[in-house]
Amino acid sequence: MSTNVSLIVTASALIACGVYLILERSLTRVLAGLLILGNGVSILFLIAGGGAGDAPIEGTTDAADMADPLPQALVLTAIVIALATTAFLLAMAYRSWQLNANDDVQDDVEDASIRRLAAADEASDSHDLATGGEDDDVLTEEGA
Fold first, then answer.
1. What are phi and psi of 54, to 5 degrees?
2. Which of 13, 14, 76, 132 is surrounded by the fewest CB atoms within 10 Å?
3. Taking the mean position of all CA atoms in its chain, how far away is CA 25?
4. Residues 25, 94 share a domain
5. Distance between the two ends of the chain, CA-based, in angstroms?
């Protein structure tokens, strides 16, 4: 049984575009990326399910000729999850638009301070508390 190459290329292109859009800062782009990714994964499930077959009803057809119902169930589940996630992201984007007049995700203040400390190669206060307040110079002198 041969797989349709155009379906594989379509699914991989949709998944690649979806991942690219999910990594953006704008919540509307993240939402579009999530929907595109969901469609690509649904196509991938159907490709993995194999070729078409007869209805999977016991007693009406031979077991070897039946279609596999599991990929269809997985696609239906993916649609429901995508609908719920879409509603959640739409609510987040709308609330962000109300508060900030844009839907970009802002940097966290704590993340910025940690990034600044890492660039300066300094230990943070929480690191000093976790190590018991020992200094790095004391540790290197003991190790030598």
1. -75, 170
2. 132
3. 14
4. yes
5. 66
Residue 135 has pLDDT above 70, yes or no: no
Are 117 and 84 members of one domain? no
Parent domain of 31: 5-106
45 and 77 co-located in one domain: yes
Whether 129 shows a pLDDT value over 70: the answer reads: no
String of DSSP letters for 48-99: HT-S--B---BTTB-GGGBPPHHHHHHHHHHHHHHHHHHHHHHHHHHHHHHH
Give the mean model confidence (pLDDT) for residues 16-37: 91
SS3 at position 116: helix
Q: Which of 70, 80, 25 is nearest to 50 (CA)?
A: 70
- Closest to 105 measured CA to CA, from 26, 21, 29, 19: 26
Q: Which two tokens stand for residue 106?
A: 């802002």
